[in-house]
Write a structure and sequence with these properties.
The chain is an alpha/beta fold. Helix content is 46%, strand content 14%. Strand 3 (52-56), helix 3 (67-79) and strand 4 form a beta-alpha-beta unit.
């Protein structure tokens, strides 16, 4: 059994029984504790945990009735309702042992016992104890999962108005099956938002499947998304289920959808319209039931005007549109994000107690963050790794590419037209808290024209 019996506690007033049991079990258990006096049971249970407790039914004060055994069984189970207790009883006490089983004992062994039978009984009891632990772990995991489900936006950190507006949209759209299009720069957390929508939806108990459309080649597009039958083409050595079918009853997230070519857009549109997929090499279409969420960092409305993206596909995928603010549009969230990442990487790299100082936070809030939250995350990870001090300082972020003094957006003596245009657009976006329609109206531009300029200036 190779010490499979774990920790065993034996309580019996007969020293010969205790000695014999310990000699037998010490080869098979990690630890064998023996005790003559049952009054020490509370002390023993407070100071250690046991996989199995062997309890005599009768002690010196009450030789045959078993009352003491019942009393101490009750005391044990009161302290640990999942304690595995095996009663030690004489042949004549079998009826009493059966009664004890009804009152919570796990099993009983008869005096004098057969060694093999005792070991078998203990082995079964230990497996039962392990099953109790596994059930507790599953319950704990289930409770944690439910708490995460019931705690909206747990992983989305921020208290700014810009991010709270996103939360409001998620709350409204999540309980529906409406298709969602998430717009935002690289590093703003589009996949995180998509998962938040899924976790708040009626499909949360089913699968979430994410696909990076930018990473799928033209030749593998249909096989990856729709699947194929064995022998459909040279390398098709077995049947493959496509992502659409895998996501059936759940949520399908298509990231970087703006990277698709026009022919692939047409194929995708057909599947979305018909809610059916046909594997390569198959004759029969399969029905699909999915919640579709798409995302892109590209100016998709400009692409429609330039005939680079199908307008009918855009209408299909953006029943509800969510625009994620860039980090520079929610600078007040940087302290919360920074503290979260410092805690995460301090734990990962075993640098407990590390914090970020006020001066460092101030420096981070002055940076323009072209890479958004992802850049902030990587910057803090690097700082945590390289810093030897308890508190991160501005010097720990020396590698950030700050604009030279005198080149700020508020400077009025700039005559480069591109810079002037960039600064004016940024001010309009900031003034309207990221609302593209309002900013475009104030600037005298269409939404599409403003998106083109945002792309041009990397805003």
């Amino acid at each position: 059994m190779d010490k499979e019996l774990g920790n065993i506690l034996i309580i019996d007033d007969d020293e010969d029984v205790l000695f014999a049991a310990k000699m037998l079990l010490k080869k098979h258990a990690k630890n064998v504790i023996i005790e003559k006096n049952p009054k020490k049971i509370p002390f023993l249970m407070n100071n250690d945990t046991y996989d199995v407790i062997l309890l005599d039914m009768n002690f010196s004060k009450d030789i045959t009735s078993g009352k003491e055994g019942f009393y101490w069984l009750e005391q044990i189970l009161e302290r640990d309702p999942k304690a595995v207790v095996i009663l030690i009883t004489a042949f004549g006490d079998v009826e009493m042992a059966v009664r004890a089983l009804k009152e919570g004992a796990t099993d009983f062994v008869l005096k004098p016992w057969q060694n093999e039978k005792l070991l078998a009984t203990l082995n079964t009891a230990v497996k039962l104890k392990k099953s109790y632990k596994e059930v507790d772990q599953l319950k704990s995991a289930k409770k944690q999962l439910e708490e995460e489900i019931n705690q909206p936006f747990k992983e989305i950190i921020g208290e700014s108005k810009a991010i709270k507006d996103v939360f409001k949209v998620i709350e409204k759209v999540a309980q529906t099956d409406a298709n969602v299009l998430i717009l935002g720069e690289n590093g703003t957390g589009k996949e995180l938002i998509s998962r938040a929508i899924h976790m708040q939806s009626l499909r949360r108990d089913n699968v979430f499947v994410g696909v990076d459309m930018g990473a799928i080649t033209e030749t593998l597009f249909e096989s990856e998304l729709f699947g194929h039958k064995r022998g459909a083409f040279t390398d098709a050595k077995e049947d493959r289920t496509g992502r659409f079918e895998v996501a059936n009853k759940g949520t399908l997230f298509l990231d970087e959808i703006g990277n698709l070519s026009m022919p692939l857009q047409s194929k995708l549109l057909t599947v979305i319209q018909n809610r059916q997929v046909t594997k390569i090499g198959a004759n029969k279409a399969a029905n699909i039931d999915i919640r579709l969420i798409c995302a892109t960092n590209m100016p998709i409305y400009d692409m429609v005007e330039d005939n680079a993206f199908r307008q009918d596909l855009l209408y299909r995928i953006n029943t509800v549109e969510i625009r994620l603010p860039a980090l520079r549009e929610r600078l007040e969230d940087i302290p919360l994000l920074a503290e979260h990442f410092v805690k995460t990487y301090s734990s990962k790299y075993r640098k407990s107690g590390k914090k970020i100082g006020a001066a460092a936070l101030k420096k981070l809030q002055k940076y323009h963050w072209p890479g958004n939250i992802r850049e902030l995350q990587h910057a803090i990870e690097r700082a945590v790794i390289m810093s030897d001090e308890t508190s991160l300082t501005p010097d720990d972020f020396f590698f950030l590419n700050y604009k030279p003094e005198g080149q700020s957006a508020d400077q009025t003596d700039i005559f480069n037209l591109d810079e002037v245009e960039k600064n004016v657009i940024k001010k309009a976006i900031d003034r309207h808290e990221g609302n593209i329609s309002k900013a475009a109206k104030e600037l005298g531009l269409t939404r599409a024209s403003l998106y083109r300029r945002l792309e041009k200036h990397g805003l």
